[in-house]
Amino acid sequence: MSKALTIHLTEDAAILAVVSLPGGTPTLEASQKFNFESTDLAAQAKQLAAAIEAIDGKKTAATIVLSRDAVRWQNYQLPPAPLEDLPDLVAMQAMRDHPLAGEDEGFDYLPMEGDEQTAHRVLGVGVSVDQLQRVQKICDSAGVKIAHLVPRPVGWTGLIDDAAQKANVTAALETGVATIWAKNADRVVRLRTTPMPEGTSPQIAARLLTGELRRTKLTLVDIAVDSAEPTTVWVDGSSTLFPSISDQLSEGVSLRDYRELFDNSSETVTMEEVAPLVGIASDVLRGKAPLLDLVNPRRGVEKPSNTRTWALAGVAATALLGFVGWLGFENVNGPLRAAEEAREQAALYEEQLKELAEEQEQHSKVLEWQANTVNVLNELTALSEKIRPVSLADEEFPKDQDVLTVEIDLVSDEWTLTTLAKSAAAAEPLETRLRNDGRRVTRQVLRKEEKAKEGYQFRLVEKLQPAEVSAEELP
What is the pTM of this model? Predict the structure, then answer.
């Protein structure tokens, strides 16, 4: 049975995954995750080779995966041109941003829309010279041949595609980032990632994600995508985010668990860490080229020569003339499209403002409740200071006037205080202190108990009310 080895390399760690396709279902046969113990490339290569041997992976060919932040992403708008001329135009444009554009390795692009009549829109992805050399040195020293060099977000498109997901817009949500892409006739026409700040509440996370999905849909107005298809968000069902965000997504957005897409018996890595690797390996096992491959670009660009430079200059001049005509057309129709997009954005913002107004109203209610609610702990503290104003250890403590609190009943703003006193003479001083504290005091009971408790033989019950009453009602 065929297997594929995928390795996610970062500056200080590596994740390995061995994947097979029994019955067409991706299965994670083995996996391992470890941190590099040294910054020396030779030591890192030795550690990688040992890890591959431990999971019974063959040190022949592997797909190397790079984190999103390890590569540079850039969208390009190019003039209308035949598709066969597109690689050369992309390389010439990308040389400003990517040092390896035009070379055999280190840069690739994804054509998203455009043809001979309409402007091209492409996504260029490249890696720095130092990063490429580091990966090559580690793999060479470890005895691993680099079959593919793929950005990690691409793995989500391979994994979800294996599930026959045909939605016009799809997203994969993981810790700190969401990968969003759109398809048209089984071809990816949009691919982007957006940060999802950690610690954000499920409500805010759902709102951010919904807004990004709408924003992606707005860019598809000129592409024949079936807008009736639902938007699907894939999340690890075992994470705490799954149940908390499921009720927060807007209408027309469904939530699914990507654990159903492949079998994982590994205990060394999480589903979130390994899912994109499984998606990339599945494409390799099916003989499908990765969406972006930095060592196998869509068409290799030859080393520039004088002849080739003049030829490319002629192509560029022709394209430039066409582009000038296209700009003239855009100057007429561009404002109309911009106005339409502005109206759509205004409708989106209006909906968000309504939601924010509801939240602000709830916030005001909470503040009003806090302002009008008595702080019981503060009230009890003040009451205790009036019941026993002097410490028992104080020499001036009037022991014959001391009282013990037995019970306090609170009903609305009326308090019933039940105490035990050593003598009946303790009642009047207590009532005086409470009245001086701004309370209305009404004596309910003062009787001698049959069984005295440690010398406290009189039961005294007082009813306490706020002082905001008329002077005629005061005793």
Answer: 0.61
